[in-house]
Design a protein that fits this description.
The chain is mostly helical. The chain has one domain: MFS general substrate transporter like domains (Growth Hormone, Chain: A, Up-down Bundle), CATH 1.20.1250. It is about 75% helix and about 0% strand. The chain has helices at about 10-40, 45-50, 55-70, 80-95, 115-145, 150-180, 195-215, 220-230, 235-240, 245-250, 255-285, 295-325, 330-345, 355-380, 390-395, 400-415, 420-440. α11 (about 255-285) runs antiparallel to α14 (about 355-380) and α13 (about 330-345) runs antiparallel to α14. It is globular and about 65 Å long. The two termini are about 25 Å apart.
Length: about 450
């Protein structure tokens, strides 16, 4: 194929539209998991341990999805079968997870001090994040498969826009349902109806959006794919058919961009893990007069406001995504974005007004926009012509998951070091983003 066929805007839109629904599910999880488990009785020092599960499942699942989908050439497509399967499971689990408190059994506390409701929520979270990862990864891969180098930045920007738009909806659903009169309070240990309704509606939107992409997008057959990417057809069929792919050998052969961007990712995703874990406690304490009682109305109101703050962050990310293409150098765009986000995180330690807190989250949106668009643009361009792109994108997800696992595993210990001050954890997140900005200089970026 001498000249790669360019996709229209709407073709690229259709390619990523299902991501809108998937991100609603992810946003509901991100904004409400700490709130749900705190409501079920988790100690603040335990909260970070629950956050180990999502990245751990992503670290296991996404490389496997990449590896398996690289070898899948069937009537339904290459990536789409995994997209659909993940979405169906995610919908089922989203209906179950927020009902964990209602399924509480009158049993004694067991291993790790978790009651039966918390165990149910724990396993639901495992299945939810596994299914979200299965549904999410194919969207990144399909852009890599079907979009040429000249359009990749635009395609990932569209995906970033849909991602943040989905986040906006997911974050605002609980406060919207509270506003229309659905109860935001519940008996001790039970998740409020406003949160439960949000998960139900999010599940419905998820399946509709994924089905839209599933039926609108037609993936390339092997021969066309090989011509598009300049890969030998026989080699592609041999490697995509029955040959076993050794992920560890692929890591050894990974381009330098894989590792240097991964280093920046380490600091960025550790910072955002702290944001998702400690925002609820920080805002409740700083902006609601030192509230720590998770069964109080004030704590649940603060939980709703976390959704508003995260929505403001999503708006900031959407607007900053429009600014990013104006930078002449990707490296400079990366650094500036992370430093703006660092300022937002650091300021939350000092802010005691909920509206000013939203301004801080708006700044954090700049870092989020860069994290969604720039790493995958840099990596897929470095991998152009590689028949293992799906496997590499799956492995690259480990640079997202591993820092979250480490941050979650050590979060309780670090929280004790700062005297239990959850706001200090967000200050530390700002320091992480500064470190990430410094590490951008190690990335070799082609002109």
């Amino acid at each position: 194929m001498d000249k790669k066929v360019k996709l229209s805007f709407w073709q690229m839109w259709n390619l990523s539209f299902g991501f809108f629904g998937v991100q609603i599910a992810y946003a509901l999880q991100s904004a409400n998991i700490s709130r749900i488990f705190a409501t079920l009785g988790a100690d603040p020092h335990q909260l970070s341990f629950f956050w180990i599960l999502p990245p751990l499942m992503g670290m296991i699942v996404q490389p496997l999805i990449g590896k398996w989908s690289d070898r899948t050439w069937c009537r339904l497509g290459r990536r789409k079968p995994y997209l659909l399967a993940g979405a169906i499971v995610a919908v089922l689990v989203m209906v179950l997870l927020p009902n964990a408190g209602s399924l509480r059994l009158n049993t004694a506390y067991v291993l790790l001090g978790l009651n039966s409701a918390m165990w149910f929520g724990l396993f639901s979270l495992i299945f939810l994040d596994t299914s979200i990862n299965v549904a999410m990864q194919p969207f990144k891969m399909m852009v890599g498969d079907m979009v040429g180098e000249e359009q990749k930045a635009q395609a990932y920007s569209i995906q970033s826009f849909l991602c943040n738009a989905g986040s906006l909806v997911g974050y605002l659903l609980p406060i919207f349902f509270t506003w229309i009169g659905i109860a935001n309070e519940a008996p001790e240990g039970v998740v409020p109806d406003s949160v439960i309704s949000s998960f139900y509606v999010g599940a419905a939107i998820l399946i509709v959006c994924v089905l839209y992409t599933f039926f609108k997008v037609k993936e390339m057959p092997p021969k066309e794919y090989a011509e598009f990417h300049g890969i030998d057809t026989e080699s592609l069929e041999r490697e995509g058919g029955h040959r076993r792919i050794n992920l560890f050998k692929l890591l050894v052969k990974a381009p330098r961009t894989f590792w240097t961007v991964g280093l920046v990712q380490f600091f960025c995703w550790a910072a955002f893990l702290y944001m998702w874990t400690y925002s609820n406690g920080t805002l409740a304490f700083n902006c609601w007069g030192g509230v720590t009682d998770t069964s109080s109305k004030a704590y649940q109101d603060a939980g709703n406001w976390v959704g508003v703050a995260f929505a403001v962050q999503a708006v900031g990310a959407v607007l900053w995504a429009l600014v990013l293409p104006r930078f002449r150098k990707l490296g400079k765009a990366y650094v500036v974005s992370l430093l703006i986000g660092a300022a937002g995180f650091a300021s939350l330690f000092f802010i005691h007004d909920k509206y000013l807190a939203c301004a801080a989250y708006f700044l954090i949106g700049a870092a989020w926009a860069a994290m969604l668009a720039l790493p995958f643009t840099l990596l897929t361009n470095a991998l152009e012509g590689d028949s293992h792109m799906g496997s590499y994108l799956g492995l690259f997800n480990c640079t997202i998951c591993l820092p979250q696992i480490i941050a979650a595993a050590t979060g309780g210990f670090v929280l004790k070091l700062v005297g239990g001050n959850q706001g200090a954890m967000l200050l530390l997140a700002g320091i992480f983003l500064v470190a990430g900005a410094v590490c951008v200089k190690f990335i070799k970026i082609n002109k």
